[in-house]
Design goal:
2 domains, single chain, alpha+beta, Alpha-Beta Plaits, 5 helices, 261 residues, 10 strands, globular, 10-stranded mixed β-sheet
Length: 261
């Protein structure tokens, strides 16, 4: 049976995350309804990385198996005709049957956008995390280097995390400022539940001067979630992309149009 890969972008504000729920108010539910409307049959979908309530995506990769034969552009236009405005297919392509949106991904990248300003901005509501206190991004950039490489990220995993192991490999992590936006990027082989939001929460404490730069290393060594910062808001979190070096896929939608980055 042919396998189709899709890239999905979505604004997560109105949705209860990726994974299907009885309420139907999830990205997966909306996508599978659109697929049914387009093809006339039900097709289960699998994604590269599940996102929680309120979390966004630029390039969420999804695959499905189907006997329906359509051109790539037809999949894009046909599904988008049945999707709400906050969800859109960016590209579609047929892939080998051994391609798997989750297990074939070598790495995943998340971006977190902080709006750093004394007053909140309504146009950035639910699209960024807001910090009004002083925030030193240079200290945050120094601290984030501690998480590079292979580590036990127990101090940054949710108590509901079902991963068999807390060991993850962080390939890339950075903090940059663009005017009043502080942008954090994380690229790893995989992520634990709430891992990025817990990392951001601890980095914000460092940027505010409430914790020293060494706090990240202290948390890694402690392997104790209770010592970490509260889980940061989902509003500024974006599933940026997944990497599949063993497969030829269309280019990722890698920019954040609203922020010009």
């Amino acid at each position: 049976m042919p396998r189709i890969a899709l890239s999905i972008s979505y604004d997560g504000r109105d949705w209860l995350g990726w994974q299907t729920q009885p309420s139907g108010i999830t990205i997966q539910d909306q996508l599978e309804r659109a697929i049914f409307a387009f093809t006339g049959s039900h097709h289960p979908t699998i994604c590269a990385g599940r996102t929680d309530t309120g979390v966004h995506a630029l390039n969420q990769v999804v695959h499905l198996d189907t006997l329906i034969h359509r051109e790539a552009y037809a999949w894009v236009r046909g599904l988008n005709a049945h999707l709400p405005p906050s969800i859109a297919v960016q590209w579609a392509t047929q892939v080998p049957n051994d391609f798997h949106a989750r297990f074939s991904a070598r790495s995943r990248t998340y971006v977190y956008v902080i709006h750093h300003a004394p007053v909140r901005h309504p146009l950035l509501h639910a699209r960024t995390g807001w910090v009004y206190q002083a925030l030193d991004e240079q200290k945050m950039a120094l601290a984030i280097t501690a998480i590079l490489g292979e580590h036990d990220f127990s101090s940054f995993r949710s108590s509901q995390c079902q991963a068999a192991s807390p060991i993850r490999v962080m390939n890339r992590a950075s903090v940059i400022r663009k005017h009043n936006l502080v942008i954090l990027e994380f690229c790893a082989n995989a992520f634990l539940h709430h891992m990025v939001r817990n990392l951001v929460g601890s980095l914000v404490l460092i940027g505010q001067g409430k914790k020293p730069v060494s706090f990240m290393q202290t948390l890694l060594d402690a392997k104790d979630r209770k010592l970490g910062a509260p889980t940061f808001s989902p509003s500024g979190l974006y599933f940026h992309s997944a990497a599949y070096p063993d497969y030829e896929l269309p280019g990722n939608v890698t920019d954040l149009p609203l922020f010009g980055v």
